[in-house]
Design goal:
- It is a single chain.
- By secondary structure, the chain is of the alpha/beta class.
- The protein has 14 helices and 19 strands.
- The protein has four domains: about 130 residues, Rossmann fold (3-Layer(aba) Sandwich), CATH 3.40.50.12160; about 120 residues, Transcription Regulator spoIIAA (2-Layer Sandwich), CATH 3.30.750.210; about 90 residues, Transcription Regulator spoIIAA; about 55 residues, Beta Barrel (OB fold (Dihydrolipoamide Acetyltransferase, E2P)).
- Strands 2-1-3-4-5-6 form a six-stranded parallel β-sheet, sandwiched between helices. A five-stranded mixed β-barrel has the order 15-16-17-19-18. The chain has a three-stranded parallel β-sheet with strand order 7-10-11, sandwiched between helices.
- Strand 13, helix 13 and strand 14 form a beta-alpha-beta unit.
- The N terminus is likely disordered.
Length: about 450
């Protein structure tokens, strides 16, 4: 007998960070036993979830704009005698709370990032047209305890949340207010989830946290992210481990040593610096200087010489002068980045920086961002070009856009395109790199693979 098709359809739109991608996957896993299958378009869904991010510029207004469109879909469904439930989850839900329900009455549920485990109960209440519509408290241990253990990975790589929240209180950032303080999952729970993923064919996990290297869950190899990495590296079939996002303040000796000693830990580190000006860094409350950051990079590269570094940069922070910005460009030249994310500063309501004097004009921020991006692009192309002629182990993940092509990732997180059979998807294969572009590499299989 064939399985019955799901009687309900779920559409999740994910904004922002990789942790939101993980949260969306877990929401889908959690709702599947309730009969929710996947809808490819919001207008086809019985339940629409917007899993939001509050970091990007004008994030809140983008959510309200999207809700306006979905409201029309809900009205159209009702005109046909059907129903649609609309839920707003994630960091905008945490920050806005009841304001979302006030501004957009079509919304049925508001669920903060620590409360989405309550979705089944909240959905049932919404269907009964009574009870709570808002769940935005901070209780991460309850969230993870409530999640079903079973996961349905969709590929050979998967995200795995190990830490949430932030205690750093950078003056530009809303994370401490939307995700709460730093909290680490027990190592045993993480290992169990990682083992389940490996048994289902996952070869690579990326450990997620707002400050992932602040992880301090107890484990049998010592506390900290380094101990967790060593523990996960013993899982059969789990060949690659990555983590993001890190804070320079929490990059300790044990973690640096793990990069030198743990083969599964990939030589790619995302370590945001934000600015090269000590004056701006102090105003941001970053608790590091430009020099201490550069010295830290040198220590990491001494332990792992082929380490690729990526970073985050904010230009146009309040009071940033041309000299401050030039210090950022100088730091970039000194470090040499394989990739980076760069943004114009934008005010976040309620953050200390939003009230600082010296707010810069958009045209100044635009011009500085363009100069920074031009330098970062030169460095990224140079890093990619340096791989030409090398043979790299590539984990193949999916078919390419062209017939007979598959795509994988190098140890340095670069996309690699190769003409090869689909049977190699899920395998780690040596590939000789023949050419490089801004965003990808192309190569050929080595003779022993063929």
């Amino acid at each position: 007998m064939s399985e019955l098709a799901p009687v309900k359809r779920l559409y999740i739109k994910t904004y922002g960070c990789q942790m939101n991608v993980y949260d969306s996957e877990r929401m889908a896993d959690m709702l599947a036993p309730l009969g929710y299958g996947v809808a490819l378009r919001p207008e086809d869904a019985d339940l629409v979830v917007l899993n939001t991010c509050h970091i990007r510029e004008k994030a809140t207004e983008k959510v309200y704009s999207e809700l306006g469109q979905i409201r029309l879909m809900k009205l159209a469904r009702q005109a046909e005698g059907g129903t649609m439930t609309i839920a707003v989850a994630g960091c905008v839900a945490q920050a806005e709370g009841e304001e979302i329900l006030r501004r957009q009455p079509a919304v049925d549920l508001v669920v903060g990032p620590q409360s989405y485990h309550q979705l089944p109960e909240l959905i049932a209440r919404a269907h009964r047209a009574r009870g709570e519509r808002l769940a935005a408290d901070f209780a991460p241990e309850e969230k993870f305890d409530a999640l079903i253990a079973e996961r349905r990975p969709t590929g050979v790589s998967a995200f795995l949340t190990v830490q949430e929240g932030c205690d750093k209180f950078c003056t530009f950032c809303v994370v401490p207010y939307t995700r709460g303080g730093e909290w680490s999952r027990p190592a045993g729970d993480i290992e169990a989830e990682a083992r389940t993923l490996a048994e289902k064919g996952v070869r690579e996990v990326t450990l997620l946290g707002q400050n992932v290297n602040a992880y301090d869950g107890a484990n049998d190899t010592g506390s900290g992210l380094a101990g967790l990495v060593r523990r996960l590296a013993r899982i059969p079939g789990l060949d690659r481990i990555r983590y993001t996002t890190s804070h320079p303040r929490d990059m300790d000796e044990a973690l640096i040593a793990a990069h030198a000693e743990v083969e599964a830990l990939m030589p790619y580190l995302h370590l945001p610096v934000q600015s090269g000006s000590d004056r701006v860094l102090k105003a941001m409350n970053r608790a590091h200087t430009a020099e201490s950051y550069v010295r830290l990079i040198e220590t990491i590269r001494a332990a792992r010489p082929d380490m690729a570094i990526s970073g985050d940069f904010i230009v146009g922070f309040p009071g940033e002068t041309e000299a401050d910005f030039e210090a950022t460009l100088q730091l970039v030249r000194e470090v040499g980045y394989a990739g980076a994310f760069s943004f114009k500063y934008s005010r976040r309501p309620g953050t200390p920086a939003s009230a600082l004097p010296g707010q810069l004009a958009d045209e100044v921020k635009d011009e500085r961002l363009a100069r920074l991006n031009a330098l970062l692009e030169i460095q990224r192309i140079a890093f990619n070009s340096a791989q030409v002629g090398r043979t790299l182990p590539v984990l193949f993940e999916k078919p390419g856009r062209h017939p007979g092509q598959i795509i994988g990732r190098s140890p340095y997180l670069q996309s690699v395109h190769v003409a090869a059979p689909d049977r190699l998807i899920g395998e780690i294969v040596p590939v000789r790199i023949e050419s490089a572009a801004s965003n990808s590499l192309a190569g050929t299989l080595t003779l022993e693979t063929v």
